[in-house]
Each structure stands twice: as structure tokens, then as C-alpha cells.
Amino acid sequence: ETIHALSRTNEVKTNDDRLKNFVGDICQLDFLEEALAKCNVVFHLAAEADVERARCSPLESFRVNSQGTAYLLEACCRQEVESVIYCSTCHVYGPLCRDQIDETHPTRPASVYASSKLAGENVLQGYLSNSEKLTGCAVRFTNLYGFYDNDRTVVSKAIRQVASGEHIALDNLWSKRDFVHINDAVQALLRLAMISNKNVDFEPIFNVSYGRCFTIKDMVHLLSKAAVDLGLRRP
User: Fold this and answer.
1) In contact, 223 and 233? CB cutoff 8 Å
2) Are strands 176-177 and 214-215 parallel, antiparallel or unpaired?
3) 194-205: per-residue pLDDT in tens?
């Protein structure tokens, strides 16, 4: 099978001969139709995912996260793609009404980023309702970590500080996070693609998390212990 990788600026680097690169803009329908030709399943991760950049450039964020999703889904319908997995965020819930968050929790996005991602979910729902063939779902991730390039997560920041022998310096030690490693996120996406591709009747929104919260301080203590176990200076 051939894997198509779509990127706005850079080709994906890999030794996998099955990979075919396409570089273009998510709001260019011709580009998307060419890139999605003969594809069965699409994992939609294209987004302005930086909360601060989204705040500073709201129009661009809605163009990419909301309008771009509409362009992608239109191209999927034209190319008869079977299933679309849309990567969203737990930020769409906003201020929490209860401790345990399931998919029925009210959505009250409190940022431009969260609003634009929720708008993308609504675009997906509209296309799924309007199509007899297209299936799919929206996946709301909690706090992802484990990227290798341009990772600005609090986990990666702390790891870099420990590895370089610096002090651990973070903004808020008492903020709670439900951390999900990127490898587990990928496994969740693959499983959801298998389910949605069989036209199984299910609610098209899923949370992906461990269901356990840790404070940033808990994470710092774990990193400090790991540093000592590895023979590094305790930060």
C-alpha cells in the first residue's frame, strides 16, 4: 500500500519506499484532490496547533483549522475516500463542569485555537451527515508529548533542561495534565480508523487519554529521579 504524506512546507523524511510526499496548502482544492487520489483513509492532523500563535493570528487559525478542514473533506468526497479521522483537542471543553470528562461534557472553548478546532469538528459532522459513503470521527487528545522536532510541550522542555544539566524552570507546577505519549496516540488513531472504515454505527467523537491526571510537579519529580538513575546530576 502507498502512504501519502501532505505537508505545507517540508517533505516527510523516511526510508519507507511506500511514502509519497505532497507539499501544498490545505485550502487548495486541486492540490488536495491530487494528493488524496486513490486513498482509503485520511488522518487529518493539519492545523495551527500553537495556542499563542492562534491567539495572535485568529483569522489564519480559522482559515487553516476550520476552512482547511472543509476543503479537505470536500476533496475526500470528490476522491471517494472511505474514512476521515480528524484530530481535535480536549481544549474544546473549556472550563470543566466535573472532574471526569467524557464525550458528553459541554464544549465551551476558551481560546481561538479551541474555537477553531471545534469549528472543524462541526464541519466534519456536516460532511458526514451529508454523505452516504464517507465515515469518520473526531478525536479529542489530551496533552500529547514525545515529538522529535519542534516539540514545545512542557514535558519536552523539562527533559531538555535535565539533559543539558540546567535547573528545571517551568511556569506552573500545580497545573494538572493528562499526558499521552505520541506512540499511544498513533495506536489510537489506527484502531479508530479500523472501526470507522467498517461502517460500524458509533458516536463520531472520541476522547483519547489515560484518564489519570498528574501535576507538573509530579512530572518534575519523576524526571529528577530518572536523571539520577541515568547517572546525571539531580536537577
Assistant:
1) no
2) antiparallel
3) 886 555 555 689
Alpha-helical segments (H) within 6-48:
29-36
CA of 75: how far to CAs of 20, 35, 126, 131, 195, in Å?
18, 9, 14, 13, 22
Cβ–Cβ under 8 Å, residues 178 and 211: yes
For 42-99, the pLDDT digits (tens) are: 999 999 988 899 999 999 999 999 999 999 999 999 999 999 999 999 999 998 877 7
Burial class (CB in 10 A: 0-12, 13-18, 19+), 179: buried
Q: Are 71 and 29 in contact (CB under 8 A)?
A: yes
- How far is the C-alpha of 26 from the C-alpha of 138, rounded, in Å? 18
The C-alpha cell of 58 is what?
485568529
pTM (two decimals): 0.88
Beta strands in 28-151 (DSSP E): 41-44, 83-89, 135-141, 143-145
Please check the confidence at residue 134 and state whether its pLDDT lies above 80: yes
DSSP at 66: I
Q: Which H helix or E strand runs over 176?
A: strand 176-177
High-pLDDT (> 70) share of the chain, %: 95
Q: How many Cα atoms within 13 Å fall on the side-chain side of residue 204?
A: 22
The one-character DSSP state at 91 is G
Residue 105: enclosing H or E segment and its boundaries? none
